[in-house]
């Protein structure tokens, strides 16, 4: 979560998380918490 608030490359952290059996839902849940969810304007 802390890394998502910064400007570092997150890909190595994603790889490490998956290697430690984190699910895609867990990873995206943290990102959604930090960045919010994209909602296009119409």
Features:
mainly alpha; 60% helix; 0% strand
Describe the structure.
This protein has 42 residues and is an all-alpha fold. It has one domain (2-35). The chain is 60% helix and 0% strand. The longest helix is centred in the C-terminal third of the chain and has 12 residues, at 24-35. It is globular. The mean pLDDT is 92.
Largest sheet: none
Number of domains: 1
Number of helical stretches of at least 4 residues? 3
Report the strand count: 0
List strands and helices in order, with pairings.
Elements: H1 2-5, H2 11-19, H3 24-35
Précis, in short:
Helices cover 60% and strands 0% of the residues. By secondary structure, it is mostly helical. It has one domain.
